[in-house]
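The instructor's notes for this session suggest beginning with a concrete chain rather than abstract definitions. Hand out the sequence below and ask the class to guess, before any prediction is shown, which regions might be ordered.
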Amino acid sequence: MGLIDSHCHLDHFAEDRAAVIARARAAGVSHMVTICTRVRRFAEIAAIAEAEPDISCTVGTHPHQAAEEADVALAELLELARHPKVVGIGETGLDYYYDHSPRDVQQAAFRMHIRACLETGLPLIVHTRDADDDTARILREEGAGQGLRGVLHCFSSGRALAEAGLEMGFHISLSGMVTFGKAEEIRAIVRDVPLDRLLVETDAPYLAPTPMRGKRNEPAFIVHTAAKLAEIKGIAPEAMAEATAANFRRLFDRAAA
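After discussion, reveal the predicted structure:
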């Protein structure tokens, strides 16, 4: 069982996508999830997944685009989520660092995506930045005790949100940020996250891990992030790949079908 890139943006690789995918496979990546950030562009995301047996996709509106897509209705999200290549809802959530969309609009979109997860049974992909308290509050208000499951992707938040997510049954996904020199706080949190709740991702083309800093990130580089996670947890890289792949298949069970 190879490494699984649980979160990347293959639509950003228009000119050399085939080569990027080939390099990922050569690096031992067995599956990739290309993430939707605009519902209105879902057809483009779905087409990438439809073309490859080892690529899945999601459907959702990123908090940056929440105002742009404020007219997206729950019924539309549910209809698109029926696509056989869709394995999750999102990415959605709250981003108070950039505030590209008003916070109340972000929150409304976040709640709608959670409702879509509850209706479909699909996992939620959560983006959160500088919004730990509201993220935890909304997840509890909308999903507590209702079987909501999902992942805090590209984790860069504080320990309290990690603990809240774990308490609610969520997974924690780590990107190349965990390899950065100044990310000791994140590494300290990772040490306490149970192995069966960890996922690994690239968030490509962003956040290339050490030693690839400064380059365009791509799914093949996930080997460096996984190796750092293995080091932090004190296990072999092969064991980390096996564990995170098993975690992915359990959470994103439609991809395993």
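Then share the key points. The mean pLDDT is 97. The radius of gyration is 17 Å.
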